[in-house]
Amino acid sequence: MACFFRRKIAAELAKTLQQSEDALLPALTAVPVFKKQQRADFKLSLGALRINGILPSSGDIQLQTENLAAQLKPDSVVEDISVGPGLINFKVNRSLLAEKLLEPFGKGEGFNFGLNSELFDTSKRGTTLVEFSSPNIAKKFHAGHLRSTIIGNFIANLKQSLGNNVIRMNYLGDWGMQFGLLGAGFNSFGSMEKLKENPLQHLFEVYVQANKEAEHSEDMKHAAKDFFRQLEQHEGQAMSLWQQFREITVKEYQHIYKRLGIHFDVYSGESFYQVQTQEVVRELQSRCLLKISPKGTGVVDLSPNEDMSNICTLLRSDGTTLYITRDIAAAISRKEKYCFDEMIYV
């Protein structure tokens, strides 16, 4: 529909400038819609015409703009023409706009509305991986997760409609020191009976209690670190408890996603990349990129002057990994597995 108006305006310009329509189209663009004020629908850049050799590159560009605008007249397609700084603005006929907007629906083509535009003829198609929603396990799904979930689903739907092979991934926050605190807290305050009755509520209560305890108890802090160390070393009892937390959460989330009309092709998570994180660390070490900070943490220096003024921490002082370490490993793994053309984080 937009292409119809763009082509019509280009045709009139072509007559005036004695050029082909296709030569003028790159300089003619749609104007974004603003709620608070009504603007033109299309604009012609005189600068682009000068760069492309359609107009002389010397002389006053504003004078060129006004002279060209004076040669153009409103018609059945364009109801108003105005001049801006180096721009000619076109406002299309509103009745014709409504008619063209509704035309596909009258022909029974509404399901494909907007997708047969020539604007998409040159767009690249391939495999798109969209990571969205990505809540933390052992916590309730709340309003804060909706933004990523709804926008991510929209992007995935849009990419799929445009002909891309879309992989929808939910990258769960299922690893990290917070699970050391949750595991240690559950060992101290948890109840299997309550876990069966209201799983996420009980895990939330345990985490809050453990967090308060850790504020004044060194024993709880040490217990949390020890539990996470056990997870990183894949010790049986800690892994069993963690796996139970994960399965409970995914099951609860799937009910919510079903109600929202959203599906995922892959449920992934930070925990999938424990082995790969060590490979990332070794690769960084082999390239002399991983350095040890005065605090004993493993960092990569991102500062332009290599003065450690801007660093990214990849390892804690006890050798355990962080979210970013696992995220790097995940990105490498996804590229190798899915051979995507683009990956979108929402």
TrEMBL record:
Pfam families from the UniProt entry: tRNA-synt_1d
Span of domain Arginyl-tRNA synthetase catalytic core: 122-346
Entry keyword set: Aminoacyl-tRNA synthetase, ATP-binding, Ligase, Nucleotide-binding, Protein biosynthesis
SUPFAM superfamilies linked: Nucleotidylyl transferase
Membrane spanning residue stretches: none
PROSITE patterns to which the protein is assigned, alphabetical: AA_TRNA_LIGASE_I
Family named by the database record: Belongs to the class-I aminoacyl-tRNA synthetase family.
Annotated function: Catalyzes the attachment of arginine to tRNA(Arg) in a two-step reaction: arginine is first activated by ATP to form Arg-AMP and then transferred to the acceptor end of tRNA(Arg).
UniProt name for this protein: Probable arginine--tRNA ligase, mitochondrial
